[in-house]
Amino acid sequence: MVFDHDIAIQTAKYLLQINAIKLNTKNCFQWASGWKSPIYCDNRLALSFPEIRSYLTKSIADQVISIYGNQNIIAGVATGAIGIGALVANKLDSPFIYVRPEPKKHGRKNQIEGLIAKNKNVIVLEDLISTGMSSLNAINILKDNGMNVKGMISIFTYGFNFAIKKFQSEKIQVNSLSSYDFLINQALKDGYISSNQLELLSSWKKNPSKWSPIQ
To answer: For the chain, how big is the Rg over CA atoms in Å?
Structure first.
């Protein structure tokens, strides 16, 4: 995964500034997987800040054009990437759809909302990549419906090796505006955390499923 250094740092600064990224090495968060984590990420907060959402929208739109060119459908992964996905699609004047984690229980029982255009190129957008499971689920749903998934772009990624390998095995190109490593280094530089906390946060990423906070 290749990052634009300046965009990665500015994105990290913005996410820290609006408290979209919460770091706590003592009173940790628990993920749905049961993992204990010193970080909680809610990038949807960026939608409430016009300057920041405009920056993220332009940065992602620029990546779409530079990597994949024009004539793409933008697909957001529900629910986190619906907002930013629609903004990016609007900026690019592209069609927009979004993918639910599972079909609706009622009505037409859609799992893809919007026009399903078979054999058309699709760029999938995520607000956050952690284990990669929800992202790959959305990608496979799009493929099963005859759409050509060219790649994925996210606002933020944890950069777990096992997730990277999953995308590589599925031959999915993934790019992100910023990452966990950029974030924690910027958090140290801007005084959000101490050097001891940086060491703890770095150790968590190496083995997140087995990590536990220092008591």
So the answer is: 17
